[in-house]
Design a protein that fits this description.
eight-stranded parallel beta sheet; 260 residues; 8 strands; TIM Barrel; 41% helix; globular; alpha/beta
């Protein structure tokens, strides 16, 4: 099983990371991908990937902190991206729910990072909240730079929007939200090709039912697997195997690293 999106560098995991990573095997977790959100997070993700064999990393600026995006950050992105365990540019995108950076700045930084990802030969991991229309506008305008896979992290859009993106070859990651009482994700998950679905936790956020309200961990991935299996009429083992294959297809550098 795989956690394709989490934040082990979050302060809620202070003093616990080494034990969490050590326990991944015991919980059946093959590896995790620690996602960058700002300068501090990118530095921490890189260090975690360097230190732990089962941790991969991304580089990128979250829309919340898009106002802090500058050439120094770009230079570090490009430097770190040369590492074999830095596997994507993310999480990048738009967040109109909190609007912690101005929307025009979010859109500009999103577009810039799509272009950077293409130059680096890396896929992108998207954070999109209450901004699916504008996100598609940016992706369409930057279409010539989308040559290395697109992942919709914590996808919360409609089934029809998912169908449109799936036709473009995009991937979709689901976590604890699909277990929430009013999530109504069945139609969405059923609308997506089985070979485009990934699992995630977004730990320490978004713990699944029945653990909602607690600190989320990668050990909760089996709950997500079981829910997807139930929705699709598959066995958990079938979901595990397909998601593993999907993740390696989405992130080619992980496949290269594991096969070295």
């Amino acid at each position: 099983m795989i956690d394709s999106h989490l934040h082990l560098d979050d302060e809620r995991f202070d003093g616990q990371v080494e034990q969490i990573v050590a326990d991944l095997n015991a919980h059946g977790i093959d590896f995790v991908i620690n996602n960058s959100a700002d300068l501090q997070g990118m530095l921490a993700s890189f260090e975690l990937a360097n230190k732990y064999d089962k941790v991969f990393a991304t580089v990128g600026m979250h829309p919340h902190t898009a106002k802090d995006f500058d050439q120094n950050f770009v230079s570090l992105m490009c430097e770190y991206a040369r590492h074999p365990k830095v596997v994507a540019v993310g999480e990048i995108g738009l967040d109109y729910y909190y609007d912690l950076s101005e929307r025009n700045i979010q859109r500009d930084v999103f577009a810039q990072q799509i272009e950077i990802a293409d130059k680096l030969g890396l896929p992108i991991t998207l954070h999109i909240r209450d901004a699916y229309g504008d996100a598609m506008d940016v992706l369409t305008a930057q279409k010539r730079y989308l040559n290395n896979n697109v992942l919709w992290h914590c996808y919360s859009g409609s089934a029809e929007f998912a169908r449109q993106c799936a036709k473009l070859g995009h991937y979709f990651a689901f976590g604890g939200a699909i277990t929430f009482k009013n999530a109504k994700k069945e139609e969405v998950i059923q609308a997506i090709p089985f070979d485009r679905i990934l699992t995630e936790t977004d730990a320490p956020y978004m713990a699944p039912v029945p653990l909602r309200g607690t600190t989320n961990t990668p050990f909760n991935i089996p709950i997500i697997v079981d829910k997807i299996a139930l929705i699709l009429g598959k066995t958990p083992n079938e979901v595990e195997e397909q998601v593993y294959s999907n993740t390696l297809a989405m992130f080619p550098k992980i496949k290269d690293y594991l096969n070295k």
